[in-house]
Amino acid sequence: FFTHYTSRKGKELEQNSKAALLFYWDILHKQIRIEGEVLKLPIDEAEKYFKSRPVPSQIGSAASNQSCIIPNRDYLLEKAKELEKRFEEIGEVERPPFWGGYLFVPNLFEFWQGQSG
């Protein structure tokens, strides 16, 4: 998955790379819990994925400093406009250094089967 390294999630992963995923299907009375470690992807992989995204998504990611307080919505829109203008000038949106990817590496799978009633 890809996100801002400066987001709450990114900061927490910097402190503790252990994670768990839970998939719960109420109607089926089943769940799967997966534990593992989250590793930061190499920059070249983050760069490749960033470039594969639509330009508006690239601009949105670069303009937004996730989890940071901004003065107002206009501030964000102005940053996006600046990046759009820069894109028109240089022909690409540069991946911001605070944006990258992670890889979840599972090491434990737990399956649960419930029953109705």
UniProtKB/TrEMBL annotation:
<feature type="domain" description="Pyridoxamine 5'-phosphate oxidase N-terminal">
    <location>
        <begin position="1"/>
        <end position="83"/>
    </location>
</feature>
<dbReference type="GO" id="GO:0008615">
    <property type="term" value="P:pyridoxine biosynthetic process"/>
</dbReference>
<dbReference type="Pfam" id="PF01243">
    <property type="entry name" value="PNPOx_N"/>
</dbReference>
<dbReference type="GO" id="GO:0004733">
    <property type="term" value="F:pyridoxamine phosphate oxidase activity"/>
</dbReference>
<keyword id="KW-0560">Oxidoreductase</keyword>
<keyword id="KW-0288">FMN</keyword>
<keyword id="KW-0285">Flavoprotein</keyword>
<protein>
    <recommendedName>
        <fullName>pyridoxal 5'-phosphate synthase</fullName>
        <ecNumber>1.4.3.5</ecNumber>
    </recommendedName>
</protein>
<dbReference type="GO" id="GO:0010181">
    <property type="term" value="F:FMN binding"/>
</dbReference>
<comment type="pathway">
    <text>Cofactor metabolism; pyridoxal 5'-phosphate salvage; pyridoxal 5'-phosphate from pyridoxine 5'-phosphate: step 1/1.</text>
</comment>
<comment type="pathway">
    <text>Cofactor metabolism; pyridoxal 5'-phosphate salvage; pyridoxal 5'-phosphate from pyridoxamine 5'-phosphate: step 1/1.</text>
</comment>
<dbReference type="InterPro" id="IPR012349">
    <property type="entry name" value="Split_barrel_FMN-bd"/>
</dbReference>
<dbReference type="InterPro" id="IPR011576">
    <property type="entry name" value="Pyridox_Oxase_N"/>
</dbReference>
<comment type="similarity">
    <text>Belongs to the pyridoxamine 5'-phosphate oxidase family.</text>
</comment>
<comment type="function">
    <text>Catalyzes the oxidation of either pyridoxine 5'-phosphate (PNP) or pyridoxamine 5'-phosphate (PMP) into pyridoxal 5'-phosphate (PLP).</text>
</comment>
<dbReference type="InterPro" id="IPR000659">
    <property type="entry name" value="Pyridox_Oxase"/>
</dbReference>
